[in-house]
Amino acid sequence: MKNVLIAGASGMVGNIILDHCLSSSKVGAVISLIRKKSDNTHSKLNEVIIEDFTDYAKHRDLFKNIDSAFFCIGVYTGSVSDKLFKEITVDYAVSFAKMLKDNSPDAKLCLLSGAGADRTEKSKTSFALYKGMAENQIDKLGLEFYAFRPGYIYPVEQRKEPNLMYAIMRSLYPILRLLGSNFSIQSTELGKVMLDIGLNGTDKKTLENKDLINYLEEQRDY
Q1: pLDDT level of residue 141 (50, 70, 90 thresholds)
Q2: CA dihedral over 99, 101, 106, 110, signed as positive or negative
Q3: What is the 3-state secondary structure (H, E, C) of 83-140?
Q4: Distances in Å between the alpha carbon of 148 and those of 30, 116, 206?
Q5: pTM of the prediction?
Q6: C-alpha–C-alpha distance, residues 69 and 119, integer Å
Q7: CA separation for the pair 147, 15 (Å, rounded)
Q8: Which CATH superfamily is domain 2-220 in?
Q9: pLDDT value of residue 45
Q10: What is the pLDDT of residue 175?
Q11: Which of 17, 38, 89, 199 is the most buried (most CB within 10 A)?
Q12: What are phi and psi of 148, to 5 degrees?
C-alpha cells in the first residue's frame, strides 16, 4: 500500500484527496501537513502542524518513504498582498518539492496549479506568472511531477463563496459545463483525478482542464 503526503488538506480539493486516501485500499498511511489540527481521527491519518511552510528542516523524516505527494495549498487572487501571494504560490510549493526530492526521490508529486499558468514567466497577471514559476522550479528538480491546471473548480459541497466573482462563477457553472471541457471541473472530479494519477501516474505531465475531463471519461469506459 502507498504512503501519501498532503499539504493543504484543509482546502477544498486537498480535503477531497484526503477523504479518498482514507477510504482507498491502495493507501496505507497519510501524512497531512497543516496549520491547525482537525477533528479527523482516522487510523491512517497522521496530522502534523507546520509553522513555516518554507522550512521543513525539523520535519525531514516526514518526507521519507513517500510514494505520492500532493501540494494543494493556495489562496484566492487579491485576498493577500502580492508578496505573500508569491510566497504561498511559489516558495511554499518549491520548498515542499525540494524536501520531497531529497528524501523520496522516486515519489510522484502532484501540484494543484491552475489554468493559464505561464511557464514563459512573462505574464502581467500574478496568478499566471507565479503558477508558471512554481511549475518551472519544481520541474527542474527531476521528480515525477504532474502539474494540474483546472479551470473554474465548482465546489460540490455548499460553502460561502470567498468573493463576488466566485459567487457569479458558481451561478454560471451549468453554462460553463455546456461550453465543453476547457472551462470547468467539479471539485470531486478534480480530487479523484489527482489521486488516481498521484497513485498510478500517467503519460502527460501537464494536465489542462480538458485533459482532466478526458481522463475521467476514459476511466468511466472500463
Answers
A1: very high
A2: positive
A3: HHHHHHHHHHHHHHHHHHHHHCCCCEEEEECCCCCCCCCCCCCHHHHHHHHHHHHHHC
A4: 21, 11, 6
A5: 0.91
A6: 22
A7: 18
A8: NAD(P)-binding Rossmann-like Domain (3.40.50.720)
A9: 98
A10: 63
A11: 17
A12: -100, 125
For 197, the grid coordinates are 494519477
Write the CA distances from 82 to 6, 86, 89, 171, integer angstroms. 25, 6, 10, 28
221 pLDDT band (50/70/90 cuts)? Answer: very low
State the average pLDDT over residues 45-62. Answer: 97
Contacts of 25 (CB under 8 A, 6+ apart): 1
Band (pLDDT 50/70/90 cuts) for residue 182 is confident
Location of C-alpha cell 479551470: 151
pLDDT of residue 218: 86
**Residues ≥6 apart with Cβ < 8 Å to 202:** 146, 215
pLDDT over 90 (residue 142): yes
**Alpha carbons 141 and 96: distance in angstroms, whole number:** 11
- Residue 68: phi and psi, rounded to 5, are -140, 135
Looking at residue 8, what DSSP letter applies?
-
**∠ CA(170), CA(175), CA(181), 5° rounding?**
100
Compute the average pLDDT of residues 125-149. 98
